[in-house]
């Protein structure tokens, strides 16, 4: 349950677990679905919903209501349905609530899972929002070409690990940054990035980027914003592209950090474009056709960070903002 609106970094105590009786039946005449939740996704945008007014993201999701369950993406089993698109026994992914059982009265953002021969938890990450974000963000917004120099921030996370691997499959030179040695090792060994560095150990981000990109960056996949973006702007090549996916370093800031080096967009004729994955859902079927074979053929590695039980949900979500998660952060409510 979401306790109340916050400012600054989220804390575990901003959420609490409540127990109560559940009715495992839909109300008479309901057009909704009754779900048994299996896997819940921890996503950075959820922090934005913890403030009463969120410009932009509010167009997709309203802020959380104090005293109500946290909502978010997840994987669930349909126990009862009054909706023509769903029937008992279906496995679905989409918007649900952080509960054991949920009634979703208007299941507009709920998709039936057709391919169940992969781990179902993948439908919180690689086969859901973060996967489609990486796919559309990289292939569409970055206009990548073989041999180009690609830089990914928050590279060991849900989106970043996939962007880097898509770029490698395209034949690009790929460098990622992350916040610990363990993550840096993972980027180089498991995800096969060409290079990786711990941004927390670099006093001069501009110098670090010059070390890894002596000839400059063609593509920057932006996940963090702030100082990192400023340093990247100094290192872009002519006609470079920046896909602005998110800016997690700014989500808890009372006052967003200024960016000083924006004139480089002009000097270097850089194309910088923000995007929202919800504008790319029409690509979802094509995306699955591409990515499921990549998973099965071992062309893409995927790492999840699994937290067990609803009671671990708050700390798992808060962990996104101090980098505790290694890979996609998932909360398991039940496995079947
Ligand atoms: P991750 O799995 O990458 O988790 C967040 C990671 O961000 C943490 O593990 C941490 O890793 C890093 N981080 C946290 N605080 C900071 C900070 N102050 N500075 C630098 N890094 C920080 O999350 P996702 O992959 O789910 O999301 C990545 C980005 O993509 C986010 O910005 C998110 O908002 C955005 N997004 C955008 C979408 C869109 O439609 N545009 C859709 C989905 C996601 P580390 O140890 O490296 O610090």
TrEMBL record:
<dbReference type="InterPro" id="IPR011032">
    <property type="entry name" value="GroES-like_sf"/>
</dbReference>
<dbReference type="InterPro" id="IPR013149">
    <property type="entry name" value="ADH-like_C"/>
</dbReference>
<feature type="domain" description="Enoyl reductase (ER)">
    <location>
        <begin position="56"/>
        <end position="331"/>
    </location>
</feature>
<dbReference type="InterPro" id="IPR045010">
    <property type="entry name" value="MDR_fam"/>
</dbReference>
<dbReference type="GO" id="GO:0032440">
    <property type="term" value="F:2-alkenal reductase [NAD(P)H] activity"/>
</dbReference>
<protein>
    <recommendedName>
        <fullName>Enoyl reductase (ER) domain-containing protein</fullName>
    </recommendedName>
</protein>
<dbReference type="InterPro" id="IPR020843">
    <property type="entry name" value="ER"/>
</dbReference>
<dbReference type="Pfam" id="PF00107">
    <property type="entry name" value="ADH_zinc_N"/>
</dbReference>
<dbReference type="InterPro" id="IPR041694">
    <property type="entry name" value="ADH_N_2"/>
</dbReference>
<dbReference type="Pfam" id="PF16884">
    <property type="entry name" value="ADH_N_2"/>
</dbReference>
<dbReference type="InterPro" id="IPR036291">
    <property type="entry name" value="NAD(P)-bd_dom_sf"/>
</dbReference>
<keyword id="KW-0560">Oxidoreductase</keyword>
């Amino acid at each position: 349950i979401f306790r109340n609106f916050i400012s600054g970094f989220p804390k575990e105590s901003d959420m609490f677990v409540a127990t109560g009786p559940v009715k495992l039946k839909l109300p008479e005449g309901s057009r909704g679905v009754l779900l048994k939740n299996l896997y819940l996704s921890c996503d950075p945008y959820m922090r934005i919903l913890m403030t009463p007014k969120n410009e932009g993201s509010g167009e997709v999701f309203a802020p959380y209501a104090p005293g109500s369950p946290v909502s978010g993406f997840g994987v669930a089993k349909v126990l009862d349905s009054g909706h023509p698109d769903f029937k008992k026994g279906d496995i679905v992914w989409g918007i649900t609530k952080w509960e054991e059982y949920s009634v979703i009265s208007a299941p507009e953002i709920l998709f039936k899972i057709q391919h169940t021969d992969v781990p179902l938890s993948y439908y919180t990450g690689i086969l859901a929002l973060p996967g489609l974000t990486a796919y559309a963000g990289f292939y569409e917004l970055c206009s990548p070409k073989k041999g180009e120099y690609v830089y990914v921030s928050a590279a060991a996370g849900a989106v970043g690990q996939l962007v880097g691997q898509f770029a490698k499959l395209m034949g690009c030179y790929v460098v990622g940054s992350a916040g610990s040695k363990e993550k840096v090792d993972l980027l180089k060994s498991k995800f096969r990035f060409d290079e990786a560095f711990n941004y927390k150990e670099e006093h001069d981000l501009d110098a670090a980027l010059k070390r890894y990109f002596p000839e400059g960056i063609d593509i920057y996949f932006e996940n963090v914003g702030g100082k990192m973006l400023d340093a990247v702007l100094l290192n872009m090549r002519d006609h470079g592209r920046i896909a602005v996916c998110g800016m997690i370093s700014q989500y808890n800031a009372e006052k967003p950090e200024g960016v000083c080096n924006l004139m480089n967009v002009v000097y270097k004729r850089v194309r910088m474009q923000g995007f929202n994955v919800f504008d790319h859902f029409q690509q979802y079927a094509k995306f699955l056709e591409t990515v499921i074979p990549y998973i099965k053929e071992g062309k893409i590695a995927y790492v999840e960070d699994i937290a067990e039980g609803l009671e671990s949900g708050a700390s798992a979500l808060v962990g996104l903002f101090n980098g505790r998660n290694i890979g996609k952060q998932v909360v398991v409510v039940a496995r079947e």
